[in-house]
Design goal:
Layout lengths: L3 E5 L6 H10 L3 E5 L2 H10 L4 E4 L8 H8 L7 E5 L4 H9 L4 E4 L4 H12 L10 E4 L2 E4 L4 E4 L2 E3 L3 H12 L4 E3 H8 L8 H15 L1 H6 E4 L3 E4 L3
Parallel strand pairs: 1-2, 1-3, 3-4, 4-5
Antiparallel strand pairs: 6-7, 7-8, 8-9, 10-12, 11-12
Helix pairs in contact: 6-7, 6-8, 7-8
Length: 224
């Protein structure tokens, strides 16, 4: 389950973009645009971490830190344009776990969030799928069969990727043409048959058996 992050930030140029960035990083992020809303959300909902601005309307960040000092179960990262030493010291004295000045890099904030949550840095995993006796590297756009690289055109790989991404799903020829064949090219349905024929020929008989023709519909790639 994704870690829940509460962002308490009133600047409309920062808050929504920060939440969007955290969502892209895989967190479940929510925004409070003022102090009272931040206090209410932190009280009524469960969060794993709070990113807190100090200068807020209604109730400032220091007041929220004081309120959460002994009752909050989440770490708090202060994100602020107030860069004086006194502000830093007061933030930590009131229970802040970390402190980051504005302007800031999203990558650094994400790294600090992960460190506070004990998540470590995200490890990028390549999408490699085994189909029949073929290995399909979707990120590297490579296909290997019995240790031998198989050369596919861009359009052939696009058709293969669509079918591999959703095994056991039957696609109509029109769907394959619309989703996999390039704009401005020959996107008629009969062209799809040509690409399927080429994939079966290039990837071998075992693969060909799993790339099924669905009569009256189109094609389906069976897993395995």
């Amino acid at each position: 389950m994704s870690a829940r992050i509460l962002v308490v930030e009133d600047d409309p140029a920062i808050g929504p973009q920060l939440v969007a960035g955290l969502l892209r990083e895989g967190f479940d992020a929510s925004l409070a645009a003022d102090g009272p809303t931040g206090r209410a959300l932190a009280t009524s909902e469960s969060f794993d971490l709070v990113v807190l601005d100090l200068m807020l309307p209604g109730e400032d960040g220091f007041s929220l830190l004081e309120a959460w000092r002994f009752r909050a179960a989440f770490p708090i990262i202060v994100l602020t344009a107030r860069t004086g030493l006194d502000d830093r010291l007061q933030s930590f004295q009131l229970g802040a776990s970390d402190w980051l000045p504005k302007p800031f890099f999203l990558e650094e904030l994400v790294a600090r969030i992960r460190a506070r949550l004990g998540l470590g840095m995200a490890v990028e995993r390549r999408r490699v799928v085994t189909v029949a006796d073929c290995e399909v590297d979707l990120d590297g756009r490579l296909v290997c069969r019995a240790g031998e690289d198989i050369e596919l055109t861009a359009a052939e790989f696009a058709v293969l990727e669509l079918l591999v991404d959703q095994p056991s799903r039957a696609f109509t020829r029109a769907q394959i043409a619309a989703r996999a064949l390039p704009d401005g090219g020959d996107r008629v349905e009969r062209t799809v048959d040509t690409y399927v024929y080429r994939l079966r020929r290039k990837l071998g008989p075992t693969f060909a058996k799993q790339l099924r023709t669905i009569v009256g519909v189109g094609y389906r790639l069976d897993p395995g």
